[in-house]
Amino acid sequence: MATLFILLIITIQQCYGVIYKLNETEFNQMPPMFEMDNYAQCLNDPDGIYCSVEFTLVSDTPSELLTMIQEYSEYSLKHFNHTKPLYGVCLTRRCKQYYRQHKSADLKLVLEMCLNESLWNEYQLKSKVHDIQCTKSNEKMDIDDGDFIVAKLMYIILFINLVASIYDYFFIRGTLRTGNSYLMNFSLLRNSLKLVDTSDRSDERQNCFKSLDAIRSVLMVLSIIGHSLHPVIVLSQNVHYMETAAYESPIFKILYNGFIVVQVFFLISAFLLSHNLQMSLEEKELKGRDILERIFTRWWRLTPPYAVWLALTASWNRFAGSGPFWKVYVTREAIDCRRSWWKHVMYINNYFMDGTCMPHSWHLAADFQLHILGLIVFIMCKGTVRRLVLMILFIIGLIAPGLKVLYYQDIDATVLAKYESVRRLLTDALGFIHAPAQNNLTSFIIGLSMGLFVYHLQRNKFEISKYKKYQLIYYLLPFFVLLTVMASDTQYTEAPLSVYSRAMIASILRPAPAVWMAAIIFGAIFKYEDTYRGFLEAPVWKVLYRISYCAFIVHQAVFRMIAGSSLLVQSNHLYLAQVTLGNVFISYIMGSILWLLVEAPFSGLVDTMRSRNQQKRKMI
């Protein structure tokens, strides 16, 4: 009896198991995950209709193949959901017979009948179409009032830049006149010189922060490279390679585990905030109204380039091209941005991760919210009270991500590069664990505390030379960062981690990169050694850092356009390198243009207004 019971259990496990690996022969038994008819040929026909089709594989009768597909797709950590392929179908060629017979019918039904024929003939399966996006030959998109408003705003910005540049070149350059201080902020000539300026800062205490430019630039490039996997994933012809060999690549592992490195941005932002506030206290006492003034200044520095690109994303970007999946990845984002633009401008979009509108901008919202919190804590709290508040906030930030995992149970500890999530640009972990401001408190509090500590040491002429004997440990710190990133790879296991293990990872792994990077930054500030510092303080980083913010804003639009307009490709390591590096280059070129036309002029306006206010106060 016991033997029969054991056999029954084994049989049930085999019937309802998860398939982790398939050989090439078994894998090729499944319908392709992505398939694409010739887009250009289809729309060259006078009545051509091309549709992107998302559907679910189904069967009216028990099917061993469908069971295998479902069990293989169940391992979502490394596999696509092969039960829900994405095809590009020329309706008027591939489904010509069905379209002629059912011209008045819903196109979903026509496509479903067409797909059912091919799927049944080859795989004995059927389809259930649930989303289509169709493009007709000679189709023209309507330009609406919103598009006209955005166009007028863009023309105004370009016109002011042009007028300021002409004014500067013909009337100011080569003379002793300073010109209109507000208008001169829009001069392309001056902003071009400002872009490549690598001169030191006036205050020596801030001049020693040059290493931060390099760290932020490198991390921004790595972030863009990590995100650039999106077009590679959705356009892969050899999906089996992506699900096997690509995941075993050390470089690939670093990229898809790099989400936690974003914590370093929160560290640096908080560090500069607390250090600058301490320096401001040397000149005057900060009060409640200074909080509002500094919040507005922060909002003004972040928003102009962000708002301009958000407006273009919601309007004119959808006219920038076309392709098999253009409406899936570009037009759909424009629709979402029209609906949710106000959440982005108010920097609360990190709590509404339910759409496809610039999802990478969650980091800006979280940083803005934490910046406000940091201002309140530093200006309203003093001495022991401040230290107590910082300690409480750190504890909240430490336990909040773990509690989220415990509450929701079926959620990842960190953002994992699951192919299906990357394809749809949305994960539960991003919305519930990664994006909320409170879940990023630990790194931010470490940065605030470090800013206080460094300021205190600078005031007391701290000498680090007596600690030179620990240099070996310091040289190992970058490897500790790398090991922390790789530690996230422990989640990519065939046996799922327990909810308690995931809760521990969510709480402890997040602040770890910030701790190691804080030590590296501390050593660079106080000139602990010359090897790392020489690299981090190279003048070129200052130029790259200036345009990194704008490059970050635009980069996902670049990937979406590539994914929406390109054909399927054979992926390999060389192609991955080509695409990612090309995407970084294009993003930085576009970022440079956005910086020159928008970020530099509007940031300059803030500096001009501040300078005028300071002059008025001195006169009073």
Description:
- The chain is mainly alpha-helical.
- It folds into 3 domains: 12-136, no CATH class; 145-195; 196-601, no CATH class.
- 65% of the residues lie in helices and 5% in strands.
- The chain is built from 29 helices and 4 strands.
- The chain has helices at 2-15, 24-27, 39-44, 64-73, 91-94, 96-101, 107-123, 145-172, 188-195, 204-207, 210-227, 229-234, 239-243, 245-248, 250-256, 263-280, 288-314, 326-345, 362-380, 383-408, 419-424, 428-434, 441-459, 471-487, 499-508, 512-525, 531-536, 540-565, 573-619; strands at residues 34-36, 49-58, 86-90, 126-136.
- It has a 4-stranded mixed beta sheet with strand order 1-3-2-4.
- It starts with a helix and ends with a helix.
Short description:
The chain has 620 residues and is mostly helical. It contains 29 helices and 4 strands.
The helix content is 55-70%
Structural class: mainly alpha
Number of strands: 4
How far apart are the first and last residues' alpha carbons, in Å? 97 Å
Query: How would you write the strand order of the largest sheet?
Result: 1-3-2-4
Q: Report low-confidence residues grouped into runs of 5 or more.
A: 1-16
Domain count: the total is 3
Largest sheet: 4 strands, mixed
**Multimerization state:** single chain
Shape: globular
Strand content: under 5%
Give Rg in angstroms: 27 Å
Number of helices: 29
Mean pLDDT, to the nearest integer, reads 87
Entry keywords:
620 residues, mainly alpha, 3 domains, 4-stranded mixed β-sheet, 29 helices, 5% strand, globular, disordered N terminus
